[in-house]
Amino acid sequence: MNRDDEHRRMLRRLIWGTYRESQRRRRNLTTGLLLILMVSMGFIAFPYTEVHAAHAMSNCGLGFDWPIESKQSPMIVRGFDNPAQPWLPGHRGVDLQASYGGILVAPSHGTLVFAGQVGGKNVLTIDHGGGLSTTYEPATTTLPVGMALRRGEQFGKVDGHSDHCDGQCLHWGLREGKQRYQNPEHAVRQQRITLKPVDDTSAIQ
């Protein structure tokens, strides 16, 4: 074998090695782009750590709107106070400042599943699917149970009897499943919090 043949063989090996490397990089790039495309289109879901619903809602919200028809966010006259145990006293919802006759609007899409009295209190309940439901007290409606509701649709009014909200507020509750109560304030789409001031002279927003 002369020197020219050896040079040609070395050149072929170099060209072949360069070609194989370029093909490998192209395959890797194609695979990466395909993976990104599949993830973005929802074909692949990566494992995740389950986050408690209350923590998730406090961080990102569920996309609810306030349930009282108004141009401004309602004042919260009493906040959420979930007891450590189901049988202990607490406040399983928030009280929003409202007067009798105030119009109620659906905070999200759902179905009216209850309208009646519970322990002498006038209560309405909307099922939003996914195990989530909201309750309203005191509240009445002329709509039939089973009525589908759209976000923002009027479904009742502040009226009837309550154990602590008569004529001054609406008790709004949010429940996940049968017994897990959540803070509905954390589910509001726009986290604009309005607290009723102690001296009633100004509002903290």
UniProtKB/TrEMBL annotation:
Keywords, sorted A to Z: Membrane, Transmembrane, Transmembrane helix
SUPFAM superfamilies the UniProt entry points to: Duplicated hybrid motif
Molecular function as annotated in GO: metalloendopeptidase activity
Keyword Membrane assigned: yes
Domain annotation M23ase beta-sheet core: ranges: 90-180
TM annotation in the entry: 29-48
Coiled coil (UniProt feature): none
Protein name: M23 family metallopeptidase
Gene source species: Bifidobacterium tissieri
